[in-house]
Amino acid sequence: MPVKGVSRVGGLGTAAVLSGAVATAAVLTSCGTSTTSAPVQPSRAAPKSPSRPASSPSPPRAAPSKSPTPSASASRSALGTVQLPPLHAAFDYQIGGAYPPPAGVRIVSRDRTASPAPGLYNICYVNAFQAQPDERASWPADLLLRDADGEVVVDEDWGEALLDIGTAAKRERVAARVDRWIDGCAAKGFDAVEPDNYDSYTRSSDLLTANDATAFITLLSRHAHARQLAIAQKNTVELAGFRKKLGLDFAIAEECAEYDECGEYAEAFDDRVIVIEYSDSGLRRARSGFAGRLSIVRRDMDVSTPGSAGYVRKVR
User: Which residues contact 256 (CB under 8 A, 6 or more apart)?
Assistant: First the structure.
């Protein structure tokens, strides 16, 4: 997820990721067991989402019951009940505010407080691994990650406290709250869920591990599938190779062309990848390599709405 003002160094090699596969697999087969050994951690700063939905959002609007109208090119997951997004379809990223989708758009992602766009494939954004500033006080104090001095660990780019998913018991408690949000997404009629900040362990000063992240996302994927929702892997290319074991159905990758990661996502997710670039150069690179395979859009860093001074949406 792109961090404003922070450059990333070279990507993590596949061999480095696989060196932690045994430890990760142990978590996946027994999510109720806390893990102390961790896979090799990424040597670079992980990408960071460009925006968060506005603070103190208005109450969700009334929404239709869950009865999606699948696109002809969408496909079913192995569960037989989860609708996957259509391949290589026009996409719009609306987590900064919902608005009528541009002509030709078939997939849209919106915040969980919004309602789905009628007739499209709708993805529900939830901030699953960190507490947004306006929601921090509503979390139990012991579920906020704390350092050795008892201070809350904060993602400084967004002022968001990291959630403590470092033990099985805490993962279950955090998941219980996120699961309620997922339930709300399903009740509104969304088709999929996008849990953000999967890579927050890379900002935890080694207090959390990749094993903690994969164990937690597995809990979310099981619940999403139980509610007949597909679930996306948001960024975190280092863990893309584990996506089938974790139950992740497709990827939402920010700036993967900018950092030469789109191919890794495409391979891991069989081209079921949504690419969001935040620069014209990133858009050009994405289109030059993957225009005929992936869903690609260029948005502004604030993911603003039409009429805003900084609004940008391009597909070519």
Answer: 237, 262, 264, 265, 273, 275, 286
- CA torsion 131-65-194-139 (nearest 10°) is 10
Query: Nearest 5°: phi and psi at 152?
Result: -65, 135
Q: Are 196 and 254 in contact (CB under 8 A)?
A: no
Looking at residue 52, its pLDDT comes to 53
- Dmax (CA) of the chain: 55
In this predicted structure, the answer to whether residue 74 has a pLDDT above a threshold of 50 is no
Alpha helices in the chain (DSSP H): 14-18, 21-29, 168-188, 210-226, 243-246, 262-268, 280-290
pLDDT, residue 50, reads: 57
Q: pTM of the prediction?
A: 0.80
Q: What angle do CA 268, 272, 276 make, to 5 degrees?
A: 100
- One-letter identity of residue 291: A
Predicted pLDDT of residue 137 = 96
Report the candidate in 20, 53, 56 with the shortest Cα–Cα distance to residue 39.
20
